[in-house]
Design a protein that fits this description.
With 84 residues, the chain is mainly α. It is 51% helix and 0% strand. Helix 1 crosses helix 2. This is Carrier domain-containing protein.
């Protein structure tokens, strides 16, 4: 899952001609990566197309991930059974 998210993240950064400002470790703060809010919206849409689900629409309580690790964990936590 992490590899898929990382690839899509980098694809969105490339499409936006954005520069990655920090290594995408689990501790990397998303707001400091160089991706803007439109980029994150595009990333979530692309991941929904690729993975077949949007974890943010499945949450009972809305939560905005702070770090890249948080972002990956949300996708892992809400992954439907049998997906990937």
């Amino acid at each position: 899952m992490r590899e898929i998210i990382l690839k899509e993240f980098m694809d969105v950064m490339s499409q936006a001609n954005a520069t990655l400002r920090t290594e995408l470790s689990d501790e990397a703060v998303l707001l400091e990566t160089g991706m803007d809010s439109l980029g994150f919206a595009i990333l979530v849409a692309q991941l929904e197309t690729k993975l077949g689900y949007d974890p943010f629409s499945l949450m009972d309580q809305p939560y905005y991930p702070v770090t890249f690790g948080d972002f990956v964990q949300i996708y892992e936590r809400y992954r439907p059974d049998g997906n990937l």
